[in-house]
Amino acid sequence: MAGRKEGGSSFIQSALGRITMILVIVVVLFGFARQMIIPKSFGQYGRYRGDSVSEVASRPVNYAGGGNSTCGQCHQNVFQALSSAEHGKMDCQTCHGPAAKHVAKPSEQSPKIEGNAELCGACHKDIAGRTDQQIATVTLQMHSGGVACVGCHDPHQPWAKLGGRS
Ligand code: HEC
Ligand code: HEC
Ligand code: HEC
Ligand code: HEC
Fold first, then answer.
1. How far apart are CA 117 and CA 144, in angstroms?
2. How far is Cα 150 from Cα 136, in angstroms, rounded to an integer?
3. Are 148 and 121 in contact (CB under 8 A)?
4. Can you tell me the distance from the alpha carbon of 4 to that of 120, in angstroms, rounded to the nearest whole number?
5. Average pLDDT, stretch 145-165?
6. Do the Cβ atoms of 70 and 64 come closer than 8 Å?
7. Does residue 158 contact residue 86 with C-beta atoms inside 8 Å?
8. CB 101 within 8 A of CB 109
9. Side-chain-side CA neighbours of residue 95 (13 Å)
């Protein structure tokens, strides 16, 4: 009995020993791999790579700051037209795209001016869950007959070309 007991416990001991060895190796390998993989600046500010802050900050700025009045300095009429109408709360660059380069040097970059169904439909297409209480919607193709939205709606003053809201 005693012999069997001893044999049993030494078996447990050696199995434990092996498991412990394997665990130690796994932990050491893990620690080593972690050291290799984790970027140096990880944890500098929190649980992310500290270097990413300066990397993101060094990217060129694409959108002009200062809101619509920045554009209004040179596009007075459009600025006033937009402000007084239904799209008045929209940023010019929502439709015209990033325009920082254009503001710095107008001849260098022309902002896009595509008033197609894709742009207008992003907000006005009648999709499930979008109700007329939230925003005026239309069934694009049926409503426009394929004609460009800006053929009838001035994007800066949606009702101006149509002589006001019917
Ligand atoms: C420093 C003056 C200046 C500022 C600021 C400025 N623009 Fe312009 N913009 C111009 C000039 C000059 C033109 C070219 C004149 C023209 O063709 O009518 C132009 C043309 C445009 C056009 C027409 C492009 C085309 O292909 O016909 C759009 C759209 C435009 N600007 C949007 C903007 C927006 C949006 C902003 C603000 C983010 C802005 N602009 C700020 C001077 C400026
Ligand atoms: C709802 C989308 C939208 C917004 C918001 C918007 N635009 Fe436009 N803009 C357009 C479209 C589309 C055209 C092209 C119109 C066309 O082809 O008849 C255009 C044309 C222009 C043009 C050239 C023709 C013109 O009317 O002089 C300028 C300049 C311009 N926009 C400047 C601005 C400025 C500045 C703002 C902000 C104050 C602004 N836009 C806001 C959609 C928009
Ligand atoms: C970023 C979202 C957005 C885009 C893009 C946009 N609009 Fe609008 N539009 C609005 C909002 C918000 C209103 C004001 C709320 C309303 O009238 O439902 C509005 C109002 C209107 C109205 C007046 C609706 C009414 O009941 O009086 C018309 C017409 C219109 N837009 C047409 C257009 C056209 C044409 C384009 C494309 C050149 C366009 N919109 C692009 C958000 C957008
Ligand atoms: C042939 C001229 C024409 C074209 C093209 C056109 N519209 Fe209209 N739109 C109108 C008229 C007229 C009204 C007012 C009567 C009505 O509701 O049908 C209107 C109304 C609207 C309204 C307000 C609907 C409401 O229920 O209050 C929105 C939003 C609108 N249009 C968006 C667009 C969009 C987006 C496009 C491009 C896909 C477009 N329109 C193309 C003539 C046009």
1. 9
2. 16
3. no
4. 84
5. 92
6. yes
7. yes
8. yes
9. 21
- Which residue's alpha carbon is nearest to atom 29 within ligand 1? 111
Residue 95 in contact with ligand 2 by CB distance below 6 A: yes
Cα 69 from Cα 92, distance rounded (Å): 10
Structure tokens at 66: 């200062």
For residue 89, the one-letter residue type is K
Take atom 40 of ligand 3 and give the residue whose Cα is closest. Answer: 120
C-alpha span between 93 and 123 (Å, rounded): 15
d(CA 36, CA 99): 42
Is residue 139 within 8 Å of residue 126, measured between CB atoms?
Answer: yes
CA 149 to chain centre: 27
CB atoms within 10 A of CB 72: 17
Structure tokens at 153: 């709606």
pLDDT score recorded for residue 119: 94
Q: Tens of pLDDT along 23-62?
A: 999 999 999 999 999 999 999 999 999 999 999 999 999 9
CA nearest ligand 4 atom 35, residue: 120
Q: CB-based contacts of 70: which residues, under 8 Å, 6+ apart? A: 64, 103
Separation of alpha carbons 29 and 32, rounded Å:
5
